[in-house]
Design brief:
Blueprint (H helix, E strand, L loop, with lengths): L25 H11 L3 H21 L5 E4 L4 H13 L4 E7 L5 H14 L2 E6 L2 H15 L4 H17 L4 E4 L3 H6 L12 H8 L5 H6 L7 H4 L7 H7 L2 E4 L8 H12 L25 H10 L3 H11 L5 H11 L6 H9 L3 H8 L8 E3 L5 E3 L50
Parallel strand pairs: 1-2, 2-3, 4-5
Antiparallel strand pairs: 6-7
Helix pairs in contact: 3-4, 3-12, 14-15
Bound molecules: zinc ion (ZN).
Length: 421
């Protein structure tokens, strides 16, 4: 397997990665362009755009200038801060509750609406629907979080139509960041197609209803039906990404929201060195990512350490050590899923079996799957030093915040059930 000579990504990374002649991946190159970019002009453009929508909404007598989809993660807090405090808009925050929450995520969402003093519309899926959808999609595509992505990507636009608020302000255009799918100059906007292809694995709820073998009902899938063209045109809905206009750096943003608004981090994670990203849903770094590991042979430690390396906050060698220790770890939240779904671990493994990527996984003579390579074997590859990202001395490691006491008293890794609300 070929691995990026700067970060840790393998050539089979999803959703697709390219290496240049120096062996550096498209994700690394994108961060490089972003680092050197002057965002002043973009920021001006962003301000004008926000002001235009704000004026329109206020002329209509609508109390909301824009919609901000939020989850309670670090990015949500940052987005609301920027839009409300720095640019002076009144946002309506919208959140889709997939029900597979961590106690920590719920505390951070509560903290966000309290500290920012904003209105929140939250759609909560029936817990039974959530588990039915997770089981079905696990079987179909090996993913227990399809309903999150469908909900997070669709409910805000439904709210835009419902409340007559045309502008949705999304945070990061995430695919650019991971693997450099888009260029910083593409100025990608939210579309139905992008949502369906990248976030919903190509499935609209209508497709699932048409499938006679699918046990899901319109009630289960209700928050995922996209508004009609007429509805969208009437409101004039548009979704923009803040990361196209402002210098997006999850690390700096986290430090800021921790200090200014008391955003809480995890204490310690099982499968990643990162204690500040994707804290709100219990399976993100756990079962969801473990399934990715079982399919493609790399996990969240690869993703998160690569990001740290690209920004000069971790050496490639430290990143490789994280991968060595964490990428393969069986997540403890798998037990919560097994208990709630009534499935056995073997049944989950059997479903993953045909989804293994044979470019990285091989069955040994005992019939067990083994990875046939790892970035661990590429620590001293030729050319690594030539493209090395120097460490930035101004970026100290983020230390865990003191855990707050709430009615959900378990710590992140000890949580034994989903926190619904
Ligand atoms: Zn790279």
């Amino acid at each position: 397997m070929e691995y990026c000579k700067r970060c840790l990504y393998p050539a089979n990374a999803r959703p697709g990665i390219l290496f240049d002649e120096e062996g550096v991946c498209s994700g690394c190159r994108l961060i490089e362009t972003r680092m050197g970019m002057d965002f002043n002009e973009r920021e001006k453009e962003f301000r004008e755009l926000l002001n235009e929508y704000k004026a329109r909404q206020r002329a209509k007598g609508n109390p909301y200038d824009c919609i901000i989809p939020v989850s309670g993660g670090k990015d949500s807090t940052w987005q609301v801060y920027v839009v409300k405090e720095r640019f002076g808009l009144n946002p309506l925050c919208v959140s889709y509750n997939h029900t597979f929450n961590t106690a920590l995520g719920v505390r951070n969402l509560t903290n966000l609406i309290e500290k920012m003093d904003v209105n929140l519309v939250r759609y909560t899926t029936a817990p039974g629907s959530a588990i039915r959808m997770a089981k079905y999609m696990l079987e179909k595509v090996g993913d227990v979080t399809w309903h999150y992505h469908a909900g997070i990507m669709t409910f805000p636009i439904k709210a835009a139509v419902m409340y007559d608020v045309p502008l949705m302000v999304w945070g990061e255009e995430g695919f650019s960041d991971l693997v450099g799918m888009y260029d910083q100059d593409d100025m990608v906007e939210f579309t139905k197609k992008k949502r369906q292809e990248h976030s919903m694995r190509g499935f609209e709820p209508e497709d699932l209803l048409d499938d006679p073998d699918c046990p899901l009902t319109a009630y289960d899938l209700a928050p995922f039906f996209y508004p009609t063209d007429e509805q969208l045109e009437e409101v004039g809905v548009r979704g923009i990404y803040m990361s196209n206009y402002l210098k997006w750096d999850g690390y700096e943003q986290t430090r800021f929201v921790m200090e200014k608004f008391g955003f809480e981090t995890a204490q310690k994670r099982e499968r990643t060195p990162n204690i500040y990203a994707k804290l709100d849903d219990i399976h993100a770094n756990g079962l969801h990512d473990y399934l990715k590991y079982l399919k493609f042979g790399y996990g969240r430690a690869t993703d998160d350490a690569s990001m740290e390396i690209r920004w000069g906050r971790m050496t490639r060698e430290e990143g490789i050590e994280s991968v060595r220790q964490m990428d393969h770890v069986r997540p403890s939240d798998l037990d919560i899923f097994l208990k709630t779904s009534g499935m056995t671990e073997q049944a989950v493994m059997d479903l993953v079996e045909p989804m293994r990527d044979h470019s990285i996984w091989t069955k040994n003579s005992q019939g067990e799957w083994e990875t046939n390579d790892s970035v661990v074997n590429h620590e001293d590859d030729e050319g690594v030093d030539a493209v090395r990202m120097p460490l930035n001395p101004d970026t100290p490691v983020i230390k865990p915040t003191k855990e707050k006491i709430s009615r959900h008293s378990q710590t992140f890794n000890e949580q034994t059930e989903y926190v619904l609300l």
